[in-house]
Amino acid sequence: MEEKRLIRKQIFAARKQCSDAQVEEWSHQITDQVLKLSEFVKAKHILAYADYNHEVMTRYIIEEAWKAGKEVAVPKVVGKDMVFYRLTDFSQLEPGYFGIPEPVRGEIVKWEDALMVMPGVAFDPENNRVGYGGGFYDRFLEKHPDITRLAVAFDFQILDLVPTEPTDICPQIIVTQSKVYRREDL
Question: CATH no. for residue 141?
């Protein structure tokens, strides 16, 4: 879809403009917001992406989850699907699919009662999401409808309106450094 391609191009360019220090500072601010959410506080299991290429850094969320005694798992791409591996140490991660950090060892988990911290390229205030185009999260979430979906993004990733398709599965909550967007009906 041409419109999504252009949005990806625009957001990737904006991410490139960010300094490492900015990404780190904003990621800390987003983590602070996430830690206050009742969904995070209550969750025993966290499914989090391993950040790459100036995405919101998930390391701080993962570290806080461990401190709070929560279990964490991160995805590995296997064919057309994602498999989540329990993460106990960042040394389990090595560059995998498209250079994205993935677990190279560990135990595969199948948690249905989890909070998923999902990435995305762009979102809108209605919680619609433009992903990276692989459909991995949509396919995974279609099979696991009870997982609570939380997306983290920088403010510049929230656009007025993003194109949607029937197969898109939106996050119920989006957290940026300055705002929390919620849709209870998703």
Answer: 3.40.50.10420
Q: Helical H runs in the chain?
A: 2-17, 20-36, 38-42, 59-67, 136-143
- Cα 87 to Cα 80: distance, rounded to the nearest angstrom: 21
In terms of Cβ atoms closer than 10 Å to its own Cβ (0-12, 13-18, 19+), residue 67 is exposed
List, for residues 139-162, the tens digit of each pLDDT value.
999 999 999 999 999 999 999 999
The DSSP code for 186 is -
Total domains, the chain? 1
Q: For the segment 80-138, what is each residue's pLDDT rounded down to a tens digit?
A: 999 999 999 999 999 998 899 999 999 999 999 999 999 999 999 999 999 999 999 99
**What residues make up the domain containing 68?**
2-182
Cβ–Cβ under 8 Å, residues 128 and 88: no
